[in-house]
Design brief:
By secondary structure, the protein is of the alpha/beta class. It has helices at residues 23-34, 51-57, 84-97, 117-124, 155-161, 184-195, 212-217, 229-232, 246-253; strands at residues 5-8, 38-42, 61-64, 69-72, 75-79, 101-104, 109-111, 132-133, 145-148, 165-171, 174-179, 202-206, 220-223, 237-238. Strand 3 and strand 4 (69-72) form a beta hairpin. The longest helix has 14 residues, at 84-97. It is globular.
Amino acid sequence: MTGKLVFFDIDGTLLDHDKKLPASAIQAIRQLKQAGHEAAIATGRGPFMFKHVREQLGIESFVSFNGQYVEWKNEPLLKNPIRADLLRELTDFADAKGHPLVYMDLETMKSNAEYHVHIEESIATLQVPHPTHDPAYFRGRDIYQSLVFCTIDEEPMYRKRFPYLNFIRWHPLSMDVLPFGGSKAKGIEAMIRRLGVRKEEIYAFGDYLNDIEMLQFAGTGIAMGNAPDVVKKAAKLVTRNVEDDGIWHGLRMAGLL
């Protein structure tokens, strides 16, 4: 690989708040690749949730589930599912609190509740199909990420009870649940180790809390203009909002276009 390697978050970074790819972002990534650089995705979504984005942008490589499953041009580089015993404990604990869960593997996501308003409200913001009901789905499968649906006030009890899991809030009613130490940065590290790429050659775009470690890890972290201040402080550069040609402007700021 002779060019730079650029990672893009999806929601709020590539996709605007209507879950659309701005025309300027499509054109910018096309020009980025024509200039000899590589584009990859780094997202909290599972692979089944962003296939359309990969196809539209012609991107083959990705870090998914916040770093728990990584592919480089169809070659799996990292598989880090949640331990089965911790999933069972989490399920029992959340059930006792009346909090539903969603389990995510490489193919789909399933809920242990037939219906819950918190699932309905939060998943709707992603504009993906609602998870179907299968409370035993986590048994005997590699679950790379779970979602627990609880309020911000209820969050601390999960962190205290499960020190060997990572909890990252992505919605006022939901948190991502990952193996301890799991992050987009760890997924990117696995990819660049395989490719022999130095951190200085890595660029990353992100806009939310699960992007902080990635922005700090990359040689050049670029926060979107719509990112919270805590995310902007983790980045070396801050570009415009996603709807205001943020990707194109950020690549220009970084000297990649």
